[in-house]
Structures are given as C-alpha cells and as structure tokens.
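> example.struct
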C-alpha cells in the first residue's frame, strides 16, 4: 500500500519526544508524496508541523488501532516498532497492572516494586500442564514450557534471565525454582528448593553491592543447574559463578558501597561474639568509606546479617566456620587500614606496632614481622642470585590491595564451593534445567575492565539470542512451506571479533601484559594503530589518548584504559602468599592449601565454580616476586564464555528479559526513557524487527478433514 493511502487525515502516528521518547499525534491533513512535512495535532491540542528528513524522507511510525493496545504478545500488533512496543508495555503495566508480556518466545518482565499475589500454589497449579499460549504471560508459563520440553524432548533446558540490577532477575529465577520444585513433586523432599533459595541471601551478601544505579547490584554472574532424576523430580543443584568484581573490595566510586557483608559486620560489631574482630563503624575503614555512602535507605545491615547467618546454617556452614569467615572478612578491613608511609622515593615502611596490622595478623594467624616485611619489599630472582628490593609507597599500597582482593576472592570461592556441597546429590542426574542470572549491558560515566568484560559477555549472549530467534522464525516458514526472503538481521560478530579475535582488544591486552615495560598508555596506542582505520566499530575519543570507544549492539561505550593491565594480570606478591600459607588458622589453611596446584587469575575463575589456579614457576625474564599466571583474567573469561555458550547451545533456551521501570523503586511507575534504554539493550526490539521482517499477522490453520477439504484458517 502506498504511503499516501496510509498517511491520511485522522491517521495516528508516533513522533520522537525528548521526555516521553515517543509522542502520539494525529494527521490533520492528508500526506501527499513529495510533501516536506506533516501537519499534526498532538494529544494536548497543540498543532505541530513535523518536518521530514529531506535525505531519507522517512515518515513517522504509524500507531496501532486501539483494539490491539494491551495485547499480551507484542508480535500480534499490526505495526511492530519501538514506539508500539513501548506504548503496549506501558499500558499493560500502568493501566492494567500486568507485569508480564510476551514478545514472541521472549517473556518481558517489568519489576512492579510491589508484592503481587500471583505466585501462590493455586497459580502454579493453574499453569501446570498448560501450553504457553493458553494462559496469560507469566514466569510460571516459561518454567512450565521448559519443564515440559525437558520431559517431552529428552533435552536439557536453559532459562536465560537478563536485565539491569534491580530489574528483578533474581526474583524471576527464584519463582522459576519454586515452580520446578512444586510441579516435580519435590517441594518437601530433602528441602532442595529451600536450600537453593537459601543460597540467595548468602550470594547477595558476598557478591552484591550498592552502585549509583541500584542498592543491591549483583557484581557477579551465576548459572544454576537444577538436576532432575528419570522421573523428572528435583534431586539437587549446582552453581557456577562468573567474573566477581574484585576491585570493589579495595575501591568504591562516590555514592557506592563495598560488598554488603562488610557493612553487615560493622553494624553488628557491638555483639559479644564479634568483640575479637575489633570492628567499629564502616566509616572507620578505608575499604568501606570511600564511596561516602555507608547506609542504604530502608536497609538494616545488622538485621541483614541475621538473615545471612541463618542461610549459612541452613546450608550446613556451622557456627565455627561462620566465625572463621567473619575473621577473614574483618582482617581484610584491617589490612586496608594499614598505612604505608614513604621512607624515600624508592622505599616505604610501616611504622612499628601498627594496630591494624596487628589485628590483621592475629585474626588470620600470621607473623607480624613477616607480613610487615613483605608488604614493603619484594624478592627478585636472576639467573645467579636472589635479592630483596624495597617497594615505593604507591607500589606497596597496590600490593596490599592486591592481597586484599586475592583473599576475598578465595573466600568467595570457598563459600560457593560449600554452597554447592550442600546442594549436591548422590542420585544419578537424568537431565537438568539451567537458570542463567547474569549482569545486563552496562555503561557508566567511567567504564573500566569490569564493564568491558560484562559487555563482552552480553555481546556473546545477544548473538546466541539473535541466532536462536532467527532460526525459529525461519523454521516456521519452512515448516509451513511459505515462500519468503531471507531476513537480514543485525549480526554482532564483527564486534565480537574486535574483542576476541587475533589482534583484537583482548589479544593486544594480553600481549601488552607480557611486555616487561607494558603499560595502559602503550596498549591504548596499539589499539589505535590496529583498529582506528580498519574497524568502524572502534573509535578514539577526541579529548583522550587513554580511552577507546566500542559500538556495542546496545550502545556506544567509552572505556578508560587506566587499570586494564593490572586487572588483567591480577598478580599477587609471592612472598605475601607464602606468609599466608604459613598460617595455622584453619580456614586460611583451607583457602591457601591448593595455591601451588592451581593456575590463576586469583579471582573466581568463570565457569569453574570458583576454583583458582596459580603457576609457581617464575618466568626467568620477568620479576619473580609476582606469580605470573598462565592465563590472564581476560583470557580465562573468554574461555569461560565459550564454555557457557557451549552449554547454552546444547540446551533449548528460554528467554526472560527483566525491565527496571524507574530508578526510584516506585510501584507501577513507568519511566519511558529508562524502559526504552533497556529494551534496546536486551534484544527485545531486535526480536520485534526479525518478526516484523516476516509476516506480522499469524493465522492458525486447522488441517482439513479429508484430502478434498479446504483448510480452515482463523485469526489469532
């Protein structure tokens, strides 16, 4: 149909708007081919002349008929585009108080910031055994579909839950777990569901923190495999973690916090059982006061610690082990307060009888003199001799912080390992449903190595998502023998190549890390020389020689190069490690007993359930005071992503895209700017584009009763 036939008087369109993203308007005059503008009437009664771009002459998006507004599946809309999606979600959410909407095979879940009575046993029973399209959109419908396909197709399943922190990912994962436990008949069998859910407050305490965008931001990703026996009853679970943000242990940006557990301990410092920890207010410790925001509105950290301790007990981590955990955590806070002073430009010292170093050493059972020595010195080895070299104050401080991050990461891994032990089963696993709860695409005012890795992960997941949606769409057309033209959808492989291919960002980063005098600045120059002219997705900021820009599938992101090499190498002073290994403190012995067996980085190795590895053979051409890791953090994260993608590709995926409707936790309040930002970043609009490229209107065809009969088609 010609544009002049659609854009007639009284036709309604969407035009861009600075506040609402899209604004509805009505044509008050027919459009004719060649017109330079449209005469419109806005909903507030204002007349507007909407000028068309002379280069493209693109007309504004048409608005759907009112009868279609509020559809529970976005692909049922006549006009499939961004404003239609945004408006439909807003109407369902704010007017009808409906938080779930389908977008083809994707469930869009908007956080209501309010408890809703839609998750009880009666609702579970209502969805059990039903087909996905027969009931209103719901997380239970997705869970039922995954459970049904696991049993019917004898194939493992995955539910991929993504979105910003605070969008409701963990809640969605929790309700999916509850559904599986109930319909599989194992809700009261060995309390597996209770134990899995008990892992949430533990993982939130040690892996979540307040950021500028959310008070309870997950700073790691996790993939939980729920195991089923041959009768499809839950028998156990296993959790894999990804990329803990270790830098947060020693540094927080303004208005942010360290991990919750530190503030919980400080809030409970007055309790008799914590007296020996020598803790006080969070404002008294460097590692918990840098963000200048030690309190979260509406959160009682002391009460939260009670919840954390109860969850530890449920998972079999006894009182003695908990005391040990808290000792190590308190020791980290004291270590951060050890002030290293400058002796001269090339050396540093710790004044005698430093009370925080004394507390650290007593809490973890190491010798004060040894730790004081190796915080300010390093051992150098050459082919013929070994000698001790003093460290300048800045290097010594960085080494102190590296040790703090290393110890915290080991403790995090130990807890994950013990959570998994509590969820393990001796019954043979027949199949599983995996639930991936992973960080969404991130862009902040300052983006560093962590955001780079997170966005790299989202590029890989987006590619998997696009390919799966595209494949399903194509198979439907082929199955129904409908002639069609191949859909040309956005393929982000060039961006992935920019990151992970030979001479890509990660490859050049690893190469720079191997250089004796490698630096963030020289790495930045190599990036510019390699990619500025050859890759359109890579840019250099005008005002900086220490940053780079990547055009991701969701948005452009500027990354600051400072700190990339240090975070990628993730090195720790070997002599400090030896001091820690000499401890007689039981938990520290457990944390460091495998130090010589494993390779690194020292943080949670993504995809290994937290196991770490360190090489003890020094590179003769390099400073042997740092344990050089066979694999850098970036390299290991790349490998872990490949393993994750392999797992997901071997399962049937189901997608839940969680949306945070506003930044103020207001119940059923919809900020269109925040919503559309997330819709663009999570692939919902790409799904719409793929669907729109085919036939948007679908009619179920009922097979004829005989060869001579005619098939009957009925509109959805």
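> example.seq
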């Amino acid at each position: 149909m010609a544009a002049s036939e659609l854009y007639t008087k009284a036709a309604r369109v969407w035009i861009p708007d600075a506040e609402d993203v899209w604004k509805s308007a009505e044509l008050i005059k027919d459009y004719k081919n060649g017109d330079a503008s449209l005469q419109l009437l806005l909903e507030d009664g204002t007349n507007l002349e909407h000028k068309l771009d002379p280069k493209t002459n693109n007309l504004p998006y048409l608005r759907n008929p009112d009868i279609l507004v509020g559809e529970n599946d976005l692909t049922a809309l006549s006009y499939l585009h961004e404003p239609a999606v945004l408006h439909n979600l807003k109407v369902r959410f704010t007017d009808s108080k409906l938080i779930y909407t389908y977008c083809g095979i994707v469930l869009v879940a908007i956080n209501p910031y309010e408890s809703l009575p839609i998750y009880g046993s009666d609702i579970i029973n209502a969805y059990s055994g039903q087909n996905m399209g027969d009931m209103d959109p719901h997380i239970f419908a997705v869970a039922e579909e995954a459970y049904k396909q696991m049993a019917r197709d004898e194939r493992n399943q995955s539910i991929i839950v993504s979105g910003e922190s605070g969008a409701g990912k963990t809640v969605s994962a929790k309700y999916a777990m509850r559904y599986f436990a109930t319909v599989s008949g194992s809700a009261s069998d060995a309390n597996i569901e209770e134990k899995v859910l008990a892992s949430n407050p533990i993982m939130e305490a040690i892996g979540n923190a307040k950021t500028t965008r959310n008070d309870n931001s997950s700073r790691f990703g996790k993939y939980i495999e729920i195991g089923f026996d041959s009768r499809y009853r839950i028998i156990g679970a296993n959790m894999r973690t990804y990329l803990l943000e270790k830098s947060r242990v020693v540094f927080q940006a303004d208005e942010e916090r360290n991990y919750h557990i530190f503030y919980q301990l400080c809030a409970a410092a007055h309790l008799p059982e914590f007296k020996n920890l020598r803790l006080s207010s969070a404002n008294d410790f460097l590692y918990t006061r840098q963000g200048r925001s030690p309190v979260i509105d509406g959160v009682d950290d002391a009460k939260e610690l009670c919840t954390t301790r109860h969850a530890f007990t449920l998972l079999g981590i006894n009182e003695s082990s908990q005391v040990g955990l808290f000792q190590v955590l308190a020791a980290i806070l004291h270590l951060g307060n050890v002030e290293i002073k400058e002796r001269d430009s090339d050396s540093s010292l710790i004044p005698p009888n430093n009370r925080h170093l004394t507390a650290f050493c007593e809490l973890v059972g190491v010798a004060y003199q040894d730790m004081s020595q190796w915080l300010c010195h390093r051992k150098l080895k050459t082919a013929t001799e070994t000698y001790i070299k003093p460290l300048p104050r800045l290097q010594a401080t960085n080494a102190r912080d590296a040790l703090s991050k290393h110890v915290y990461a080991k403790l995090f891994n130990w807890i994950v390992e013990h959570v998994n032990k509590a969820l393990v089963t001796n019954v043979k696993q027949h199949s599983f449903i995996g639930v991936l709860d992973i960080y969404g695409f991130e862009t902040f005012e300052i983006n560093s190595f962590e955001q780079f890795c997170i966005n790299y992960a989202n590029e890989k997941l987006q590619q998997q998502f696009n390919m799966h949606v595209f494949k399903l769409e194509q198979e439907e057309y082929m199955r129904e023998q409908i002639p069609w033209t191949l859909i040309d959808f956005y393929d982000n492989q060039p961006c992935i190549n920019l990151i992970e291919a030979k001479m890509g960002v990660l490859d050049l980063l690893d190469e720079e890390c191997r250089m004796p005098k490698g630096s963030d600045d020289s790495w930045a120059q190599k990036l510019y020389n390699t990619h500025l002219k050859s890759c359109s997705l890579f840019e250099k900021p005008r005002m900086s020689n220490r940053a780079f820009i990547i055009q991701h599938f969701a948005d452009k992101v500027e990354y600051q190069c400072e700190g990339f090499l240090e975070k990628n190498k993730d090195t720790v002073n070997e002599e400090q490690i030896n001091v820690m290994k000499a401890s007689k403190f039981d938990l520290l012995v457990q944390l460091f007993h495998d130090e010589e067996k494993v390779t690194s980085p020292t943080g949670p190795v993504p995809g290994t359930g937290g196991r770490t590895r360190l090489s003890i053979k020094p590179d003769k051409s390099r400073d042997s005071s740092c344990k050089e890791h066979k694999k850098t953090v970036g390299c290991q994260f790349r490998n872990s992503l490949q393993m994750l993608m392999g797992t997901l590709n071997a399962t049937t995926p189901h997608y839940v895209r969680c949306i945070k409707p506003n930044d103020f936790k207001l119940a059923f309040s919809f900020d269109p700017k925040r919503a559309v930002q997330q819709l663009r970043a999570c692939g919902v609009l790409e799904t719409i584009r793929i669907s729109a490229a085919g036939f948007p209107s679908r009619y179920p065809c009922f097979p004829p009763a005989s060869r001579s009969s005619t098939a009957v088609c009925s509109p959805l």
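> remarks
The two ends are 23 Å apart (CA to CA).
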